[in-house]
């Protein structure tokens, strides 16, 4: 929910359209101050589902070749449905969903799409009485019309305080059977968070005030509403481990009026580094999400760079010109000399020389030699 440091919080006892409000000064919990110091991620290995990355055999994370880089994507959008996102939902329904589904299917046939909306806990001051933690609006499907129709049923309201239940919605989305994630190991999971707020998390300023028990680390499929009221939010560490265990990519498209210094943008940039993803997985979006597809397309291109081998034509090689050195000729000989380095010249029988000048060395009987 969009907010300045001082925000107006709707009382949980009010209906959605009530006018009885209470002003409260609220400092958003600075998640980037709670996380360990990490820097930008320069290198990422391809992600694969359900594997302990430290225990996988060598070669498991090898990149896909050009022939199978058109892998299908399971794209699940986690849509902020709080009061400030009405324009965004209309834009998604009217234009952006059609653009993104057409664009993805053109490069990644058989991709599927789904939607989970989130608000916050229906407990003051976290949320309004009619809020919900998360809701499965459309399971993953190749039927784009189902996703567009689901957006028509999302009503933006509530949210109360600034942070929302993105972390809880992530657990529900990745652990529940309802989205229907593909079992095909070739398919790649992509969760796209669309929001203008940072996340609530275990250890933020409201934890001790709510009287809730810590999040147990497991989304309770058949007890989700009660869990929403009884357990607090997941910790960043729990979410990081969840993402690693499922092999999902998590993209964050965030509206923030002050991208360089704002609380929402800093929250997601820091968390993205914490889960060891490249900076490109967090991007700003327009106030009405009118650039949603263009931003997401750049993120998918980053996934392709991580997952695939991009073959390039090698530059032509040139061989430097060489000059054949001239043949080495034996030195010229004169009468009475050898042409070879041996002392007695018998190593060079083909060379005609005058032996009579060296009788002492060859011990020839020159006096008795026949005359030609």
TrEMBL record:
UniProt keyword Hydrolase, yes or no: no
GO biological process, alphabetically ordered: integrin-mediated signaling pathway
Source superkingdom: Eukaryota
A Pfam cross-reference name: Integrin_beta
Keywords annotated in UniProt: Integrin
Domain Integrin beta subunit VWA as annotated: residue spans: 71-211
Keyword Zinc: no
Name of the protein this chain belongs to: Integrin beta
């Amino acid at each position: 929910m969009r907010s300045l440091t001082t925000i107006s919080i709707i009382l949980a006892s009010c209906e959605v359209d009530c006018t009885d409000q209470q002003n409260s000064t609220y400092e958003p919990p600075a998640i980037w101050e709670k996380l360990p110091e990490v820097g930008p991620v320069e290198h990422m290995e391809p992600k694969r589902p359900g594997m302990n990355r430290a225990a996988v055999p060598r070669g498991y994370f090898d990149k896909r070749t050009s022939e199978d880089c058109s892998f299908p994507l399971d794209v699940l959008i986690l849509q902020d449905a709080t009061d400030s996102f009405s324009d965004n939902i209309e834009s998604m329904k009217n234009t952006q969903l059609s653009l993104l589904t057409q664009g993805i299917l053109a490069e990644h046939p058989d991709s599927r799409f789904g939607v989970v909306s989130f608000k916050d806990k229906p407990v003051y001051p976290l949320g309004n009485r009619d809020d919900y933690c998360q809701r499965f609006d459309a399971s993953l499907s190749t039927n784009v019309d189902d996703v567009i129709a689901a957006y028509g049923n999302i009503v933006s309201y509530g949210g109360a305080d600034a942070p929302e239940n993105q972390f809880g919605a992530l657990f529900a989305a990745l652990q529940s059977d309802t989205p229907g994630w593909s079992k095909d190991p070739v398919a790649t999971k992509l969760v796209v968070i669309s929001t203008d707020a940072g996340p609530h998390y275990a250890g933020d300023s409201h934890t001790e005030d709510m009287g809730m028990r810590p999040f147990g680390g497991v989304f309770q499929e058949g007890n989700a509403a009660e869990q929403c009221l009884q357990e607090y939010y997941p910790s960043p560490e729990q979410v990081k481990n969840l993402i690693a265990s499922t092999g999902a990519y998590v993209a964050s498209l965030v509206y923030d009026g002050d991208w360089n210094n704002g609380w929402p943008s800093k929250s997601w940039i820091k968390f993205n580094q914490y889960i060891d993803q490249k900076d490109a997985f967090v991007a700003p979006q327009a106030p009405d999400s009118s650039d949603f597809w263009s931003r997401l397309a750049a993120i998918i291109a980053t996934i392709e760079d991580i997952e695939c081998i991009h073959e390039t034509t090698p530059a032509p090689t040139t061989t430097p010109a060489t000059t054949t050195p001239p043949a080495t000729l034996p030195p010229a000989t004169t009468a009475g000399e050898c042409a070879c380095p041996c002392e007695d010249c018998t190593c060079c029988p083909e060379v005609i020389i005058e032996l009579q000048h060296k009788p002492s060395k060859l011990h020839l009987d020159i006096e008795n030699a026949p005359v030609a």
